[in-house]
Amino acid sequence: MPELPEVETIARELNAKVPRRRIDRIEIFRDDALVGVPRKGFRAALEGRTIRECSRRGKLLIFHLAPERYLVSHLRMTGKFALSEPLAAPLPHHRLWFHLDDGTLLVYQDLRCFGTLEVVDRLADARSLAKLGIDPLSRRFNAAWLGAALAGSRTPLKHWLMDQSRIAGLGNIYASEILYAAGISPETPSHWLDRDGVERLVSETRRILRKAIEKNGTTISDFRRVDEKMGEFQNFLRVYGKEGDPCPRCHTPIARIRQQQRSTFFCPACQPLPQFPAA
DNA sequence: AGCGGAACCTGTCGGC
DNA sequence: TGCCGACAGGTTCCGC
After folding, report:
1. The whole model's pTM is what?
2. Given a cut of 80, is residue A276 above it in pLDDT?
3. Which of A132, A181, A226, A229 could serve as A204's disulfide partner, Cβ 3.0–4.6 Å?
């Protein structure tokens, strides 16, 4: 489900509510998500600790606790965190309840049970954080960095952008949208991109991610904010999920292809495959 | 290096 | 109506 803007939205909304709240008690209804610790160890590691803040790294959501400890969560496709009034019984896809000291319930739910919850004493110990690449909203993500990183890779650009060990946070929706905005074919061998293309890719990546965060993420089916409201960026998507619709720029029907087992949407006219390597 | 395929798990949707 | 396959915002592992 969530890519960088959705996780950023959740982190910001949690950050407005949960800092200084203590986790009094945890109820576990299904423990598939727990990484590295058994259910009892998970509860013992977190109960009684206070949430200092929430942050995001790539698509990972991080709860910073005191005394020092971290809960690092990857929501994968359908994971969610929500704040709720106390409930009598868990709803169908509720997996864990964190009872906070002000009486509210921090609910972790996950329809498909792909999501993960990892507890570590130091962030450096988190396996899920270890292999992440550069954050695309950081200053280091610029044309000089990207140009050097792309050199030598023949991987199709769309797949390259989704590799979390290179850039952390882009997924299937935003990779398609960014390439459309930059006017670059998703099938371009990565090292073919010329200097101008690299610069467009950097600026469109930043622009689209910032706008998506401003719109609280994209809700196509599952994604919900902490208060169960939907995001609004789906209203600004140009190509994702729009196979056959006219391109907003040139009216050519939007195409859909499969790359690495995933759907890619693009405009064949606005995003032509380069004819030759641009050196 | 990089690709295809399968797996993890559950639900929905479209076609026949 | 009912069954069956395809597909879903992600990642990882295995084999070629």
Report:
1. 0.96
2. no
3. A181
